[in-house]
Amino acid sequence: MIENVPDTPLFRFSEIRPRVLDSVVQRTLQDLAGNPPDQVLGEALYLERTRMRRLRDNIFTASRTRRDRRLWGQIQSGLIRPAGRVDRGMLLEKSARHFAEEIGGQFNPSVYQFATGALPYFFNWMFNAASLRHFMPWKQQDLLHKQIKIGGEVDHLRRLSKQGTILLVPTHQSNIDSVMIGYIIYQLGLGPFSYGAGLNLFQNPVLSFLMSNLGAYTVDRRKSNLIYKQTLKNYSTAILREGVHSIFFPGGGRARSGAIESRLKLGLLGTALDAQVENLVEGREKSSVYVVPMVTSYHFVLEAASLIEEYLADAGKHRYLPIDDDSFQPFRVAKFFWKLFSAHSTVTVRVGRAMDVFGNLVDDEGRSIGPNGTTIDPRAWLTTRGELCKNSQRDREYTERLGSRLVERFHQENTVLSSHLVAFSYFETLRTQYPELDLFRFLRLTPEQRTLPREKFFSRAEHHREEVLRKASAGELHACPEITSSPNWIEEGVRQLGQFHDAAVIRVSGDEVTTDDLSLLYYYRNRLAGYGLSLRASELRGQLKGAHDRKGFLA
């Protein structure tokens, strides 16, 4: 059960929203005060017109584009008139207000009550309809809990949610993540969180209605002008200051390579520190912001095929052409959930121990534990020349430190599934056959060239399993129960990979093993990148996470 939901700041958001948006606009104007208004507006006008020329609108996005065109038409008209006749400051405020209203979320308690009732029913129904058994309603919840496995520092998260503000930062594999994480938060009894959602998700009318009324704020990654970016950061800071628990994906978008995120967007991540500094300066109660990593693991990913093609297209330029994003084709979404439940496939979620805004771990009382193991006072870390204040250079270094720690924690909290490990083992075993090939030549192997003897694959898979178990013992990652204890983990991993995609990621046929799609295999293999297990990882010194070896493979 959810306790004290009506007392959460998000439940009262309709009351505080006007004040929040006003503060966001005023803060944005202050941040931009050192820049010539004509220059800031002119650059924004150019970037927005360029963006809008490339848009492909549909019936659900046309009204937003019309509002954008109307605003920037007015800005252009104002800029071509003499400064003495048109107040540039007013134009700047108008554009900041426009962005604040676009970004700013809403929260409707009635929609929330409906969603928290309907979403569990949806998941329960899908599980039971797909499995064609156990239709009795009172059995559904227990069965669903077996499908979505939540582990890690759950009690720690619950305790801290009452002592400060939570910034939940999950890994991001699929657009399904937003729905799944919302359901998980509900199951944990934490009440509603605000969250940043990509503008592309609002193109779906059902999702748009739900997200627009459940605290989601929009993030349009195509908008690159300074006014928008500053307004977005200030909105995130403002809601954290109000004590609104929040979620955003620090990797920015979905991990297109399939690997754990290794390069994070530090702009929004830095708003946690901004909010805490301002809370401390103003003497607010519960001033702390706790950064909580969360890692989700799927046996198969809805958009895997289009994501890896997009990644390879960017890496290989003319050697690859991306395919359309299939994440919200209704048939594909229905098929994903049907396969997820009918295949007895689990979603594994690990909640990591919280960190403070500097990247230090915190205890159950919310106290920061410094590098030497002693309790520290965040005020001391935020005081410069005897004054508790913001300091751009210092705070930038703290945020970079937090980002580095978060990458480490993502890898430590990752749960390796049997599907990940068999994909890694098959791919790496095949690489030993062709060590001279770079990534793009390797991905063009013929069906005959990609075939391995079954015995060789199984032997190498057991070897990789032992390496994963050693790293799990050292606390570098987690291994799922199938890997740790099941003698049939290879068959289970191959079965899980074969549930969703039309092409067989791995197919065992008699004494041979092959793949129909090396790109998809690479996507799932990459979940184990960054741990030093790959063929040429030993050639690299220092940081492995996000690094490529000399042949272009993620190490």
Task: Pick out its properties.
555 residues, Glycerol-3-phosphate (1)-acyltransferase, alpha/beta, 3 domains, single chain
Would you give an account of this structure?
A hairpin with a 2-residue loop joins β10 and β11. α10 (226-241) packs across α12 (271-282). The chain has helices at residues 13-31, 37-53, 62-79, 88-103, 109-131, 137-147, 154-160, 176-187, 205-212, 226-241, 266-269, 271-282, 304-316, 330-342, 378-381, 392-413, 418-433, 439-442, 454-473, 481-485, 489-497, 518-525, and strands at 148-152, 165-170, 194-198, 216-219, 246-247, 289-298, 347-351, 368-369, 375-376, 383-384, 387-388, 415-416, 452-453, 478-479, 507-509, 512-514. It contains 22 helices and 16 strands. It has 3 domains: 5-103, no CATH class; 109-413, Glycerol-3-phosphate (1)-acyltransferase; 415-539, no CATH class. The chain is an alpha/beta fold and 555 residues long. The chain is 50% helix and 10% strand. Mean pLDDT is 88; it is low at 126-140 and 318-325.
